[in-house]
Automatic annotation (TrEMBL), chain A:
Subunit (UniProt): Component of some SAGA transcription coactivator-HAT complexes. Within the SAGA complex, participates to a subcomplex of SAGA called the DUB module (deubiquitination module).
Protein name: Ataxin-7-like protein 3
Alphabetized UniProt keyword annotations: Activator, Chromatin regulator, Metal-binding, Nucleus, Transcription, Transcription regulation, Zinc, Zinc-finger
Residue stretches of biased makeup (Basic residues): 166-176
Gene name of this polypeptide: ATXN7L3
Main localization category: nucleus
Keyword Zinc-finger applies: yes
Cellular-component GO terms for this entry: DUBm complex; SAGA complex
Any single biological process term in GO: regulation of transcription by RNA polymerase II
Entry's Gene Ontology molecular function annotations: transcription coactivator activity; zinc ion binding
Subcellular location: Nucleus
HAMAP family: Sgf11 (MF_03047)
Record's keyword annotation contains Cell inner membrane: no
UniProt function note: Component of the transcription regulatory histone acetylation (HAT) complex SAGA, a multiprotein complex that activates transcription by remodeling chromatin and mediating histone acetylation and deubiquitination. Within the SAGA complex, participates in a subcomplex that specifically deubiquitinates histone H2B. The SAGA complex is recruited to specific gene promoters by activators, where it is required for transcription.
TrEMBL record, chain B:
Signal peptide coordinates: none
Gene name of the encoded protein: ENY2
PANTHER family from the UniProt entry: ENHANCER OF YELLOW 2 TRANSCRIPTION FACTOR (PTHR12514)
Molecular-function annotations in GO: transcription coactivator activity
Function: Involved in mRNA export coupled transcription activation by association with both the TREX-2 and the SAGA complexes. The transcription regulatory histone acetylation (HAT) complex SAGA is a multiprotein complex that activates transcription by remodeling chromatin and mediating histone acetylation and deubiquitination. Within the SAGA complex, participates in a subcomplex that specifically deubiquitinates histones. The SAGA complex is recruited to specific gene promoters by activators, where it is required for transcription.
Name of the protein described by the UniProt record: Transcription and mRNA export factor ENY2
HAMAP family, per the entry: ENY2_Sus1
Amino acid sequence: MKMEEVSMSSLDNSKLEGLAQDILSDLVEDACLGLCFEVHRAVKQGYFFLDDTDQESMRDFEIVDQPGLDVFGQVYNQWKNKECVCPNCSRSIAASRFAPHLEKCLGMGRNSSRIANRRIVTGNNTNNKSESDQEDNDDVNDNDWSYGAEKKAKKRKSEKNPNSPRRSKSFKHKSRPAQAFMGP
Amino acid sequence: MSKDSQMRAAINQKLIEMGERERLKELLRAKLVECGWKDQLKAHCKDVIREKGLEHVTVEDLVTDVTPKGRALVPDSVKKELLQRIRAFLAQHATL
């Protein structure tokens, strides 16, 4: 039994070796065919002999390495100082400022909506300021859930009335809990 | 004999299904480019094309002319490396 097994395994090995060779042969043939197709396509599309041009033409297309020019020899900052006319407000704007200007002018883009929102909230607050209690102002300022509070956190200081009784915040914070419990 | 061909078919299928054949193909291609085989063969193609004429070259012309030369030009080191990988795969996945 053992001897049979040994001979069996050597047979298998030669079989396996033959199989491996065949697989390699297939792979090589695939590679050759791939190359043939590639070359044939290049011939039919006309780009096969492209790198065989004469020296003179080669020199025409050499990479350009001069200041102020890109690799193709084109001037690349020539449009920086040109002016464009805005289609919306008909003003003459510098080219590099044109895109941001359009954003504001047309009312589109991320910043424009933020500014618009801010204006709405500011508009509401300035309308209500004369009517609301000090407490309400506190709530608008300290309450994290308020929509406008976060965005206006920075602007708040500049909008503060220097004469408002709320000036000294620390004093207010101490008395506030008492106020809240006691009601309006 | 049919058991033999059955086994071969099974192995080939496994080779493809596990993506190993694709990997081997890519490996072979990369090696052949690296060792200059592709450029050599391309130069030979140029001769064939010039001979047959640019307009009249067919795929068959190229294949019949290029394939035998291509086979012969594969360096031994590349063959060895590929065979090693194939044998490893067979050792792992060939059930007899």
